[in-house]
Specification:
The complex is a heterodimer of chains A (94) and B (580).
Chain A lengths: L1 H56 L2 H10 L25
Chain B lengths: L18 H28 L2 H11 E6 L6 E2 L5 E13 L8 H11 L3 H9 L6 E4 L4 H10 L4 E10 L7 H4 L11 H5 L1 H5 L3 E7 L5 E9 L7 E2 L4 H17 L4 E8 L5 E7 L12 H4 L2 H4 L1 E2 L6 H10 L8 E3 L4 E4 L2 E4 L6 E3 H7 L2 H8 L4 H10 L26 H8 L6 E2 H7 L1 H4 L3 E2 L14 E2 L3 H14 L17 E8 L14 E9 L6 E8 L8 H4 L1 H15 L21
Helix pairs in contact in B: 3-4, 9-21, 12-14, 12-19, 13-19, 14-16
The chains are: A mainly alpha (94), B alpha+beta (580).
């Protein structure tokens, strides 16, 4: 009888220690998960920020200015466009 | 006999104690335990809320999960407005201890004068003070690295508008609390906002979340909103308008570009405008979305409706001769004049040269009620269906109250008022086979279903007149553009000043041009308005038509519409290369 009791006490103690360990581990993992979530959110907003940044670097106003000033380009007109493919295009008269 | 206990052998203490005393002590202790037990039960079982709550406050945290405000996109999915994180810096003045150099450094990173920072930190009674909200993220990072005591950050979101002033009036802006204040931001505020979620967690002593309790309410992100606006069209429409306003030293100007098939607004711009990201010293003039909120007398732009009605009811034909000599006509004592006498004109030519007398003579054959119905059917005096903050319906008095002279002036666009937006929409009657279509600011690729005002045949005839008016011998030849046939009507209206229209030499004008292209199968309707041009020229055909021309050219190119009239190619073929 005493031996069984000792065995049970040991088993209880062991299980209690294990529980504490598991609890600790789960909290640690949860914290990690939180951190990862936070990082994901941060990256998300960073992506958004960069997209907006990219967009504001490519606004028509800027593209036009760069095209005109740096690349010496000019506005397209039908006069300097060749229309291909469609038969209903008006024949350009030389 | 009485029992007694002898506690000691000392003779000094041999006096016997009565038994009731020990019983009394036992009873008192027992009572104490009962009291404790009752109290414990009361706290643990019956009235546990208070302590439960106090406990939770110490480790249980509710975290708000912020919902991002939806983005506003153009028709091609390009960003017109989006929220980006922008940290706000706050401080507990009591805890802050900065020396002069550190304060200078902080002020520099906050981009504000050092004196202001000092002032904000001076009040030590406050336990919270914003130093600056929504600063540049890079600067915020630097401030965080400096790690000043008592200075903290909080992530907020700031709206960014990459298109800046070109699209400011359509997109609008939000305030610092992320609520829409103007334009689409205000109009669709609730859809864009979304709903923040929340979750409960248990935090440890280091402030790390270690366990989740209960349910998580996921945040509902704001919906992205796709507008009908095309950023390219919007940009150069704004650019051309701005150039024209500046060149003609006008007070202001507006431009509207409408897709003639779907009723989508491709561009809507006003000048003066503002940068929605830097809204300091904004004036009402800059904020006003004139294309929608300003009404004025349309002037000659109305004439096609009067003529259209006369054609539609068979009262005149396009070739009917109207005698407009001697360039004036008198209706119940009031005289209506043409700028130049024109003699006998066909109905087509009345529109082409924009004769007030000719239009009046045709209008006098029409019943006032029919004219009212046509004008009203074309949207005049009606609230435009496009909802927008501050949108106006203009004014069109009921036909019953029209006196003959009022009917005459209404026929060429005086005595009633409309906004530029209404005018442009009304011209879809001519571009869409006699049917007026619904205008929309949201993307919609379905062809619009119209409400008939005229027959398709009448619309085609009026289109031809509009083409003549925008051609050689018309009032707006400057509206012509390379490669595309255009049609449109210029308007030059006197601005009301007090009770009258000012005297000669002291008049103020509004000049406009509303037209469409390509004229046989219109794809776009464009309206341009300039308010008080003062650089000498003021006729709509002189100041507004060139803007129309350039806008049509660029818009149709962007839309990939092929030119419908022959163009002289300017392509220089490469010279034949010399052979080796």
């Amino acid at each position: 009888m005493t031996r069984v009791n000792i065995l049970l006490v040991l088993a209880t103690l062991g299980s209690a220690m294990y529980l504490v360990g598991v609890q600790y581990e789960s909290r640690r993992l949860f914290t990690e998960l939180e951190k990862a979530h936070r990082e994901a959110r941060r990256l998300d907003t960073e992506l958004e920020r960069l997209q907006v940044e990219k967009r504001s670097q490519a606004t028509p106003a800027r593209v036009e200015r760069v095209a005109r000033e740096k690349l010496q380009m000019r506005q397209v007109t039908p006069g300097i466009t060749m229309y291909l493919g469609r038969s209903d295009a008006p024949e350009a008269q030389p | 006999m009485s029992r007694s206990i002898q506690y000691t052998a000392s003779p000094l203490l041999t006096s016997r104690t009565p038994v009731w005393r020990s019983k009394f002590v036992v009873g008192a202790v027992a009572l104490g335990f009962v009291g404790l037990g009752a109290r414990a039960a009361y706290i643990q079982v019956f009235n546990n809320d208070f302590f439960q709550r106090q406990g939770e406050v110490r480790y249980n945290r509710t975290l708000e999960l912020p919902a991002n405000r939806g983005r506003i996109l153009d028709r091609n999915g390009l960003i017109l407005a989006s929220s980006v994180p922008a940290p706000s810096i706050w401080a507990i003045p009591e805890d802050v201890s900065l020396d002069a150099a550190e304060r200078k450094q902080l002020a520099k990173l906050l981009e504000m004068p050092e004196a202001d920072v000092a002032k904000k930190l001076a009040d030590e009674d406050k336990s919270f003070v914003w130093l600056k909200r929504q600063i540049d993220p890079d600067n915020a990072k630097k401030i965080a690295e400096l790690n000043f005591k008592g200075i903290y950050q909080r992530t907020e979101y700031r709206r960014q508008y990459p298109e800046g002033e070109a699209a400011a009036h359509v997109v609008g802006f939000t305030n610092i609390e992320d609520n829409g204040q103007e334009g689409v931001e205000l109009l669709f505020n609730s859809a864009l906002l979304g709903r923040p979620g929340s979750r409960h967690v248990i935090k440890d002593r280091l402030g790390r979340a270690v366990e989740q309790v209960g349910e998580t309410v996921p945040p509902e992100a704001g919906k992205d909103l796709q507008l009908s606006i095309d950023t390219k069209v919007q940009f150069f429409a704004y650019q051309k308008l701005r150039d024209a306003v500046l060149a003609n030293r006008a007070q202001a100007g507006s431009i509207v570009v409408l897709d003639a098939l779907t009723g989508e607004v491709l561009a809507l711009a006003n000048y003066p405008s503002y940068n929605p990201e830097k809204r300091v010293n904004l004036s009402g003039a800059q904020l006003r979305n004139r294309a929608l909120t300003d009404t004025f007398e349309p002037g000659s732009v109305m004439k096609p409706f009067t003529i259209g009605l006369a054609l539609n009811t068979g009262r005149v034909k396009t070739s009917t001769i109207i005698d407009t000599s001697p360039g004036s006509v008198t209706i119940t004592g009031a005289t209506i004049r043409d700028a130049h006498p024109h003699g006998a004109l066909t109905v087509e030519q009345v529109i082409q040269v924009s004769s007030n007398v000719g239009t009046t003579k045709i209008a006098m054959q029409l019943p006032a009620s029919e004219m009212w119905e046509t004008f009203s059917g074309a949207g005049f005096g009606q609230k435009p269906q496009v909802e927008f903050p501050g949108v106006v319906s203009g004014r069109l008095r009921p036909a019953k109250s029209w006196r003959p002279i009022e009917q005459a002036t209404a026929s060429y666009g005086y005595g009633l008022s409309a906004s530029l937006f209404q005018m442009v929409r009304s011209y879809t009657v001519f571009s869409h086979d006699g049917q007026i279509i619904r205008a929309t600011l949201l993307k919609n690729s379905e062809p619009a279903v119209g409400v008939p005002v005229f027959t398709a045949d009448t619309a085609a005839k009026v289109r031809k007149m509009l083409q003549m008016a925008a051609g050689p011998g018309g009032t707006g030849p400057k509206a012509q553009t390379a490669g595309y046939s255009v049609g449109g009507k210029s308007g030059t209206a006197y601005k009301q000043q007090g009770k009258g229209y000012g005297s000669d030499g002291n008049r103020k004008y509004r000049s406009w041009f509303v037209g469409m292209a390509p004229i046989d199968q219109p794809r776009i309707v464009v309206g341009v308005m300039l308010d008080e041009p003062t650089a000498g020229k003021y006729f709509g055909g002189e100041v507004a038509a060139p803007v129309f021309s350039e806008t049509v050219q660029q818009t149709l190119r962007v839309m990939g519409v092929q030119p419908d009239i022959a163009i002289k190619p300017q392509i220089v073929a490469n010279a034949v290369q010399e052979s080796f």
